[in-house]
Amino acid sequence: MEFRLLVTFEKVATVLSFTRAAAELAYAQSSVTSQIRALESSLGTELFDRLGSRIRLTEAGERLLPYARQIIELTEEARAAVVDAEEPAGSLTVGTMESLTSYRLPPLLELFHHRYPKVRLSLRTTLGDETRKALRQGTYDVGFLMEPETEHAGLESRVLAPEPLVLVASPRHPLTGHVGGLKTEDLAEVQLVGTEPGCPYRDLFESELAERTGAPPPFMEFGTIEATKRGVAGGLGVALLPRMAVGAELASGMLTEVSWQPPFQLYTQVAWRAGKRLPRHLRLFIDASVRLVQEQTGQPGHSASEV
Questions:
Q1: CATH, residue 12
Q2: Which residue of 38, 73, 178, 298 is 20 to 30 Å from 50, comparing CA positions?
Q3: In which domain, by residue range, is 216 found?
Q4: Are 63 and 105 contained in the same domain?
Q5: How confident is the model at residue 268 (pLDDT cuts 50, 70, 90)?
Q6: In this predicted structure, what is the pLDDT of residue 84?
Q7: Are residues 31 and 95 in the same domain?
């Protein structure tokens, strides 16, 4: 089996599309098709079922895929060890969510870029379910999650820090004058402002309100955290957001904290596919993530060397 054929097979198996695989590998689609046929011929079996415009792995393809990934990872690790022994190099595709990209990761990305300029970082903004799926499939090398659970099937992860949440409103909102802690039932008739469904704190907040009040809460949806904050500041409603995302607005008085404590806890985590051999540049990235978030939050972390 030729190495380049395994690389092409792994890409097609990951994205389940000859067209998309050709684009990502910078090949003509006919080249991808001929390489897959050559690999199938050398093995004496079909690796994909062709279902009109769709494809799926055969049983033989399913069995080959983990071996192909191990061979590719070992080859990349060997190349890095020989060619770039002194300076880490390679590419990392990083899955993350908007709040972490905007408010938690910029110092990490800046530090890593300047310290390891030969490592190419590519960020993909996705929500938790999509990030976990992409990590399991090998589309992402590493991902950042903000989840209540800290164990994920098929993944290894490290908790970086608890991520506090805060309910915020305009200083003029009636809830800001409430004396004492609010109960969830007190929010039953309040207009809520939030990000899109699928965002972990939005979904947990919505579930909690629906369970306590017996009805789906009224959400005015905004596409981004920045738009959500502007809507809240304009008096459109209240929003539950990570404290890291509203620290500046709370300090300036643009937003005010409402005295309601969420009955759930989220944790920022870094994750990668279970069983994956971590090349040097990925281990360094995970270690830098642990150190930096620990410095930001004062929370203890665990490095990739403990994996």
A1: 1.10.10.10
A2: 73
A3: 87-307
A4: no
A5: very high
A6: 52
A7: no
Grade residue 86 by pLDDT with cuts at 50, 70 and 90: low
pLDDT, mean of residues 129-138: 90
Tokens of 123: 């960020």
* 163-179 pLDDT per residue, tens: 999 999 999 998 887 76
Residues 75 and 207 in one domain: no
